[in-house]
Design goal:
single chain, ten-stranded mixed β-sheet, 434 Repressor (Amino-terminal Domain), about 25% helix, Umud Fragment, subunit A
Length: about 220
């Protein structure tokens, strides 16, 4: 019976991805990946589940396929670009913990970010319509858009950024009279004042809507 490590090695061969490239996409060393994929590796069930969830989106399959091979090898909406890495899909309550500790619960799903990003990057689903302008422009992030955020990128004027003050806030950053603001694309919502120390990261890309295979874009 094929093991989950063997299944990953087969997928790597099919996708023409080396262990070194997989390591880069996961933000770990090649030696670490080699240890994970050894048949004799001593890993807890908890850690195995976490690894399978993290590696699956990089290979374009479901965690269940890596685990037992019972699901379809190809997962709709997942693809294998030449760049990017696997990042956690965080809820609003997860963001602050990830920002401070760079750890998430085993139940947190991982997704493939098709844009070059740091090991601190994550994705987050827009929970409201404050960034929805209906115009289809690059600053339009409709309700339930999936956005990729990279905390390694510095805060810059007139870029879409995520701040955290009890809850996540996404908007276009600006300054006026010595104060910092986030401006929403939806003109029905007034700009909100923010504290620079609460900056989490810059939006680097997005997917419109719930279906991850729909229109995607990146921020310059």
């Amino acid at each position: 019976m094929i093991t989950w490590q063997q299944r990953i090695r087969v997928l790597l061969d099919k996708r023409n991805i080396t262990q070194t490239e997989l390591a880069e996409k996961l933000g770990v060393t090649k030696a670490t990946v080699s240890v994970w994929l050894r048949e004799e590796a001593t890993l807890t069930e908890k850690n195995i589940d976490k690894l399978q969830r993290r590696i699956a989106p990089v290979l374009g399959v479901t965690p269940d396929y890596i685990r037992d091979g019972h699901e379809s090898e190809t997962s709709p909406g997942l693809f294998i670009p030449d760049q990017g890495r696997s990042v956690p899909h965080l809820s609003g309550s997860d963001i602050s913990h990830w920002h401070l500790n760079k750890t998430v619960a085993n139940t947190v799903p991982w997704m493939y970010c098709p844009i070059d990003c740091s090991e601190e990057a994550f994705c987050y689903t827009i929970p409201n319509k404050v960034m929805e302008n209906g115009g289809g422009t690059t600053d339009n992030l409709p309700y339930k858009s999936l956005v990729f955020v990279d905390p390694k990128l510095s805060l810059e004027y007139e870029t879409q950024c995520l701040f955290y003050d009890q809850t996540p806030i996404i908007g276009t950053y600006g300054e006026h009279n010595g104060k910092s603001y986030l401006v929403y694309s939806n003109v029905r919502f007034n700009p909100v004042q923010v504290v620079r120390d609460n900056y989490i990261g810059r939006v680097i890309g997005y997917f419109y809507g719930v279906n991850k295979s729909t229109q995607a874009g990146s921020q310059s």
